Amino acid sequence: MYRKEGNSLDYLKNQYIMVEIFQNTIYFLGCLLLIGCNSESQEWNDLIVDDSLEGWHGFQNKNSTRGWVVEDNVLIFSGISDMESGEGDASLLSNKIYGNFEIQFDWKIIEGGNSGFMWGVQEDDKYKYPYQTGQEIQILDSAIYENPEIALGGDIEIQNAIEDLKARKHFVGALYDLSPPTNLNAAKPAGHWNSYHIKIDYEANLGEVTLNKVLINSFRLKGAEWQAMLQESKFSKSEAYPYLGDARWYDFGKFEKGRICFQDHPGRVSFRNIRIRELE
Fold this sequence. Notes:
Elements: H1 2-41, E1 45-46, E2 56-58, E3 68-71, E4 74-77, H2 82-85, E5 92-98, E6 101-109, E7 114-121, E8 135-140, H3 155-163, E9 194-201, E10 206-211, E11 214-219, H4 223-231, E12 258-262, E13 269-278
Antiparallel strand pairs: 1-13, 2-5, 3-4, 4-13, 5-12, 6-9, 6-13, 7-8, 7-12, 9-10, 10-11
């Protein structure tokens, strides 16, 4: 009797172990399948291919890429900015709409130059500029903050730098006029390549900017903290900027989906190794 009872217990133990192994195997295979599906939807995609501007267009102009060229797969803004010409904004926008994403690219700017990367940009006729809706990560010759007189774009840009010397909300890596970078020494000088890794995730309510492998900015994209930043910025003072037209900045930062954008601004700026990955 004791032998039979022992055999029965051994049999039950073996059955339990086999069931547990089977369940673990199914769980493991399910995880592999899930990872495989996610990796397909989160592949990195190059945005400049074969020396072409295919997939891009000028702000409010689907048939133009005025001021922009591609040479050896390097995207270059070599034209005169709207600030200087008055011919209308020539920022470069993606044809595709993006929501949550991360993007990587290298950038190089000339002495005194200024540019930016935006997302959530809308092209309704009521908007004169992409920055009326899109938030911007600043691209800048950091030496401007040591000598504002070198800033290209005239008195406006010089004054912008002087007024921001303490707050640094217009410095390299800033969420423009909203959130300053936490590290002021990560940028390389004008004429050298810098690398950005920017993550915009509305699901997690988090934006991040990494410059040359250093995390320099982290900020909310909506909610109370973002609203507090907005109230402290020029974007909450629409009536002071009549040149923007009736839309002013009333819709600034309100769109979780929109086009990504490289800004038309004073100074030659180059971009390379531009690639993007959409997030779930």
